[in-house]
Design brief:
8 strands; Rossmann fold
Length: about 325
């Protein structure tokens, strides 16, 4: 399928808290897996957000299938635990998993990742990029794509810029080599960092700032997913009149009576209440229009996802995934 992201195998999803970042990441994984592909959905913040979105028990630190995508295809999930990732790291590079468990009991692992938080990021991004690179016995990639439910926008550049973050921690050796390997994937054309926002001032501004910071660090900006978009219910002329305070209450009352929706005694009261709703809707629509114009400045592909009236459930995820596919995001 011709999409905006042909060749991208690592989709990093970030966004301000409350924008629906995990929901968008889950829907994107479903969209990418559609048609018989195999996709891994990864979370790194320890919130078990994936399990909540898919209505599953808490996920262990292992890759397991959690959903079947539209038209076939499988979505696997992995909730990365930094402690287990560090044990895996010690075994992989030093052959000392048992010693690592002893260090865990002593609290040394927590101490190391607290003193050097960049090391924690290397562990979790390293596990993710390993899944991107991994090949089966037949030489083919194990996963067609990996979707990373990443930290919020304010921390995303530091989280991904692992080479710089561990520069003061290790100049040579396995840690340095490992971070260079991670950076090679993250900064390559195989990676795209997508931003999730709402049409509100703070999330939009944080998205604009995040894109600028990402570009300054030489990291690949992807697309912008505008979440929870509400369809405008009235024509532009009516909205403009409402915002300017020129909406005719009397005309609306007559219309309600003519349509048989209210009698003469109730028409005016009902009309006044409806006008308040119309004015609020018009003001919100004007703000959303302004925020869309602000997002034009980032010059990235943009996808608008509908507000789900019944909330986010599994059916809602499939609806969002189809919307993404229709717009060329997957």
């Amino acid at each position: 399928m011709d999409t905006h992201w042909d060749g991208v195998r690592l989709h990093v999803v970030t966004g301000k808290g409350g924008t629906g970042k995990t929901t968008v990441a889950a829907a994107l994984a479903l969209a990418l897996a559609s048609g018989g592909r195999k996709v891994l959905l990864v979370e790194v913040e320890g919130r078990q957000g994936i399990a909540q979105v898919f209505d599953l028990p808490p996920l262990p630190y292992e890759e397991r299938r959690i959903a079947v995508a539209p038209s076939g295809g499988d979505v696997y999930a992995l909730a990365i635990d930094p402690e287990d990732a560090m044990l895996e790291y010690l075994e992989m590079f030093y052959g000392m998993r048992r010693a690592g468990r002893a260090l865990t009991k002593m609290g040394v692992v927590d101490f190391a990742t607290t003193v050097a938080p960049g090391f924690r990021d290397v562990l979790v991004t390293g596990k993710t990029t390993e899944a991107v690179r991994r090949r089966g016995k037949d030489g083919r990639r194990v996963y067609d794509a990996v979707v990373l439910d990443a930290p919020p926008t304010g921390r995303i550049t530091r989280f991904l810029n692992v080479t710089q973050e561990v520069a003061g921690l290790a100049k040579v050796g396995p840690i340095k080599n490992h971070s260079d390997l991670v950076s090679g994937v993250v900064k390559s054309p195989e990676t795209a960092v997508h931003f999730v926002t709402l049409l509100e001032e703070m999330p939009v501004q944080e998205t604009i700032d995040g894109v600028a910071e990402l570009r300054a660090a030489g990291l690949p900006a992807g697309g912008v997913f505008v979440n929870m978009v509400r369809e405008s219910l009235l024509p532009p002329r009516v909205l403009d009149m409402a915002v300017k305070g020129r909406f005719d209450v009397g005309e609306l009352a007559l219309g309600l009576k003519s349509a048989g929706l209210a009698d003469s005694a109730d028409a005016s009261t009902l009309a006044e209440a409806l006008v308040d709703e119309v004015v609020e809707h018009a003001r919100r629509t004007a703000i959303e229009r302004s925020e869309r114009e602000s997002l034009d400045a980032v010059d990235l592909p943009r996808y608008e996802l509908p507000l789900l009236a019944d909330g986010v459930d599994l059916a809602g995820l499939y609806e969002l995934a189809e919307s993404m596919r229709t717009q060329g995001a997957a």
